[in-house]
Amino acid sequence: MAKGAVLAASDPKQQARELNINGLECGIFSYLLTHYLWQEDTNIDRIFKKIVPELTEDLEQTPRYEVKVGSGYQLQNPYFIQTPNSPAQAVVTQVNGSNAQLWLGGVDLRKVTAGTVFTAVSGTGQVRVAVREGIVAQANIERAVTVGTPLRLMA
Question: Which of 32, 11, 41, 50 is nearest to 106 (CA)?
Answer without folding.
Answer: 32
